[in-house]
């Protein structure tokens, strides 16, 4: 580390003290992870800003590693944060630490300092790119109420009252159960009940126990509406909103304090997957990417948001695990298909200026570094072509 930088971090950097952590526990901050030794007491010289502290208990007898847990925290200049390990829970203690205890640690900082590992400054620049739009308020808003982000969320059994029920059909779709012939419930009758066929997947799911996340354990991501169109939309409008999901993007933007917080949520969910190893976060990240890539009008209305979207996803894909990147192309999953759609939309809708330059560079980098094929953007792939349905 440059000596001037080291001096500045020594004077202005934050300190995270973690007491009672067992030897060989997996502990990390941001994208760095270590196994602790018996002298470990925490991290010093942490650059002010948002950081992700994470840990996994390791069995002393078998060496088994528990699912990762952690928390996002916005460290202020010279902040002194103290946490204690609970041996019984094998987790961070929920007990509050008194001001007197914290002050004693501060007074003993000279002796404590040699037990503190310096922040791995070489990852700092990349980390700032990955967290550029996550504010302290947004991180708190999206984190679980408990404050702890877990790769494996504790699940509890649901009571009968909490189990989801079927949707009640309008009277025009109900069927008189006293009538037993097929003709009585055939299409065209005013008292028709449309019976939904149960798929094999639904049949298998019905055999599984009904579970729900423990209170305060789930991440509070912004819900993406299932219906992509406003109430009362005509068939033509429904088709339009599915082809161009700008309406859905507008609904998500309205739930944030400002449009760029959507990029912050994209970054937050990505880090909860990459660092926190949460599959729920990965699913939300994918859904956000798909939504961004499924818009046409919104690209022009929210140019600044899309400018940061391209910057963000470019860095994110560079940090993706190799097996995940291989899966994107080998199986032509939705992320790959939607990126093709995004590039095609950018060219067809005549995005110009700096945004178009960034999009073209992004596409070329994916082709050069990862050999992703984005040729033929002016033609639809076989499974993307519209299906013509003949109406009788």
Question: Can you tell me about this structure?
Answer:
- The protein has 392 residues and is an alpha+beta fold.
- The chain has helices at residues 3-12, 99-107, 109-112, 124-130, 136-142, 200-206, 235-243, 246-254, 261-274, 279-293, 297-301, 303-319, 322-330, 334-348, 353-370, and strands at 14-19, 26-29, 32-35, 42-46, 49-56, 69-75, 80-86, 91-92, 116-118, 149-150, 155-157, 211-213.
- The chain has 2 domains: 3-130, Substrate Binding Domain Of DNAk, Chain A, domain 1; 223-382, Alpha Horseshoe (Serine Threonine Protein Phosphatase 5, Tetratricopeptide repeat), CATH 1.25.40.
- The chain contains 15 helices and 12 strands.
- A 5-stranded mixed beta sheet has the order 8-7-1-4-9.
- Strand 7 (80-86) and strand 8 (91-92) form a beta hairpin.
- Helix 9 packs antiparallel against helix 10 and helix 12 packs parallel to helix 15 (353-370).
Précis, in short:
This protein is of the alpha+beta class and 392 residues long. 40% of the residues lie in helices and 14% in strands.
Supply Rg: 26 Å
Terminal Cα span: 74 Å
The average pLDDT score comes to 83
CATH class of the largest domain: Mainly Alpha
Number of strands: 12
CATH architecture of the largest domain: Alpha Horseshoe
Sum up the overall morphology in one term: globular
- Counted by DSSP, the helix tally is 15
Helix content: 25-40%
Helix and strand content put the structural class at alpha+beta
Which stretches are poorly predicted, pLDDT < 50 over at least 5 residues? 166-195, 388-392
* Largest β sheet strand count, sense and barrel closure: 5 strands, mixed
One letter per element, helices H and strands E, the order comes to HEEEEEEEEHHEHHEEHEHHHHHHHHH
CATH superfamily of the largest domain: Aar2, C-terminal domain-like
State the domain count.
Answer: 2
- Estimate the strand proportion: 5-15%
**What is the CATH topology descriptor of the largest domain?**
Serine Threonine Protein Phosphatase 5, Tetratricopeptide repeat
With strands numbered from the N-terminus, the spatial order across the biggest sheet is 8-7-1-4-9
